[in-house]
Amino acid sequence: MGQLQRVVNKILFLKRKSLFRFRGVEFFPSEVHLMLVIKEKLATNATRMAEELGVTKGAVSQGLTRLEKKGVLIKTKDPSNKNELTLTFTPFGTEVLMRYSKGAANLFDGPKEILGQFSDAERGAIQRFLVEVEKAFDRVPD
Prior knowledge:
Layout: H1 2-15, E1 20-22, E2 25-27, H2 29-41, H3 46-53, H4 57-69, E3 73-78, E4 81-89, H5 91-107, H6 109-115, H7 120-138
Antiparallel strand pairs: 1-2, 3-4
Helix pairs in contact: 2-4, 3-4
């Protein structure tokens, strides 16, 4: 449990740090994760983005507003469905994603290499453990 607590503490500390800076603009993990969900899942529904990220719809809304102010994306509400948005990355936003993707590949190389040393059964146990830990965090009251 001590090891798990140290890992969680490092993740929590990382969440408060800027992940990277591009052209003088700082990006935090929550903003980067939101951009990736939009890009990879073609997400336009705040509820689905919140579910994907494990956060509230309010957190998604605030994140979208911050990204819009930083010039990363343009958001437009769908007049026929208030929950749907049209999200378009600006040229700057596209550059930010490209730059992050290049750096992120290196960030996950270590864990991928470590997991490669485990058998399929061990990776399955790790996956199951992480799913259960995520559920436990979901049950923690706000």
